[in-house]
Design brief:
It is built from 11 helices and 7 strands. It has helices at 2-19, 23-40, 67-78, 95-105, 110-124, 145-156, 171-174, 181-198, 214-220, 248-260, 274-284, and strands at 133-138, 166-170, 203-207, 239-244, 291-293, 298-302, 305-308. Strands 2-3-4-1-5-6-7 form a 7-stranded mixed beta sheet, with helices on both faces. Helix 1 packs antiparallel against helix 2, helix 4 runs antiparallel to helix 5 and helix 4 packs antiparallel against helix 6 (145-156). Keywords: Signal.
Length: 310
C-alpha cells in the first residue's frame, strides 16, 4: 500500500510539474519514479536508470510541496542506497572512516596513520590540485602495504576495491614478459585513459612495483606529472599507489638500531629513513614518488605541499 501511494504521489508531482513547466521538478520526480518502478517491475524498466554517475536530485527542487511528505520520501529513497552528496555515487571520500580505520585496524605503523591520512585528505579537499596523488608503499611482505591500500579504497569508494573506479595491476601477472614491453605499454596507456574517462577519481594500484619494466614506468610518468591534460584527458584527480618490497631491509636495520639504543619504535621519524630509502628506491627504478611509505613509514609530497609524519 505504501509503495502504491508513493508511486501515485510521484506520478502526480511529475504531472503537476509538467503542467506548470517546472522542468527541474519534473526531472527530479521522474528520476525517483523510474527508480522505484524499476525495482518493482524490472522487466518493464525504462533504460539508463542504472548510471551511477547521475546526480540524485536535491530536496531543494521540491520546495513547492509539503516538506513532511517530501522529507519522508527522500529518506525512504536514500535508504535504498541511491543518494550521494558528491554527484558520483561510486565515490564516498569518507575521510572520517579512513581516519578511524587507520587508527583501529592498522597496528605497528605509526607514521602511516597520520601521513597517508594527510595526503588523501589534502588531495580530496583540493579540487584544484595540479597533479595526481602518488603514494609509494615500501616494505617486506606482510607489513601492511596491501592492507592499507584496501583501507583507502574501502573509504573513498562505495564498493571498495571492487569499485569500477579501482584498477589493480600486479606486475608479474599483468606484465610478465620483458619482450612484450611495447605491447604492455600500449595496453597500460589505454587502460589508464579508459579508467579516467569513466571515473576521473580513479585509484590505480601497482602491486610488486619493483618488478615493473623500466619502459612501463616511463609510460606511466606523464600521467603523474604537472599536465593539464594528456592527449585531451585530465588525469589530475587520479590516485596512483605503488606497492614495493624494496626498502624492507633498510627499515628493519633502522628499527634494530633504535632497539639497540633503547628507543621505542614510535621514536622513528622520516628523517631517520628518508635518505636511505630514497637512495635505494632510485637504484631500483621504482617510479619517482610523491610519497614513500615503508609498510608503512611514509613521507609525502603532493603538488607544492610537503609534509612528514613521525
Amino acid at each position: 500500500m505504501l509503495v502504491r501511494w508513493l508511486l501515485l504521489l510521484l506520478w502526480a508531482l511529475s504531472a503537476q510539474a509538467d503542467f506548470f513547466q517546472f522542468d527541474s521538478i519534473s526531472n527530479a520526480s521522474t528520476y525517483y519514479f523510474n527508480y522505484i518502478y524499476c525495482n518493482i517491475w524490472e522487466g518493464e524498466c525504462q533504460p539508463n536508470q542504472d548510471d551511477a554517475t547521475q546526480q540524485v536530485p536535491s530536496k531543494d527542487l521540491w520546495s513547492g510541496f509539503p516538506q513532511d511528505y517530501i522529507s519522508l520520501l527522500h529518506q525512504w529513497y536514500c535508504s535504498l542506497g541511491q543518494c550521494c552528496e558528491s554527484g558520483d555515487c561510486r565515490i564516498t571520500n569518507n575521510i572520517t572512516g579512513l581516519s578511524r580505520d587507520l587508527q583501529t585496524k592498522l597496528h605497528g605503523q605509526h607514521l602511516v596513520q597520520s601521513v597517508v591520512l594527510k595526503a588523501i585528505q589534502g588531495f580530496i579537499h583540493n579540487p584544484e590540485s595540479n597533479k595526481p596523488l602518488t603514494l609509494s608503499f615500501h616494505g617486506w611482505s606482510g607489513t601492511g602495504k596491501n592492507f592499507v591500500a584496501r583501507i583507502i579504497a574501502d573509504n573513498i569508494y562505495r564498493d571498495g576495491v571492487k569499485s569500477e573506479c579501482v584498477r589493480l595491476f600486479i606486475a608479474p601477472f599483468h606484465f610478465p614478459h620483458a619482450r612484450l614491453v611495447d605491447t604492455y605499454k600500449g595496453q597500460l596507456r589505454e587502460a589508464i585513459r579508459d579508467m579516467v574517462l569513466r571515473c576521473p577519481q580513479t585509484l590505480f594500484i601497482f602491486d610488486e612495483a619493483e618488478k615493473l619494466h623500466p619502459g612501463l614506468i616511463d609510460a606511466i610518468k606523464p600521467y603523474m606529472d604537472h599536465y593539464d591534460n594528456v592527449d585531451g584527458v585530465n588525469y589530475r584527480r587520479a590516485i596512483f599507489l605503488f606497492l614495493s618490497n624494496i626498502g624492507g631491509a633498510t627499515i628493519n636495520d633502522v628499527a634494530l638500531d633504535f632497539w639497540h639504543s633503547g628507543q621505542n619504535r614510535e621514536d622513528i621519524g622520516m628523517e631517520d629513513l628518508e635518505h636511505r630509502l630514497r637512495a635505494e628506491t632510485m637504484e631500483s627504478q621504482v617510479p619517482p614518488c610523491q610519497a614513500v611509505c615503508t609498510g608503512c613509514l611514509c613521507s609525502t609530497r603532493s603538488g607544492d605541499r610537503r609534509g612528514y609524519a613521525g
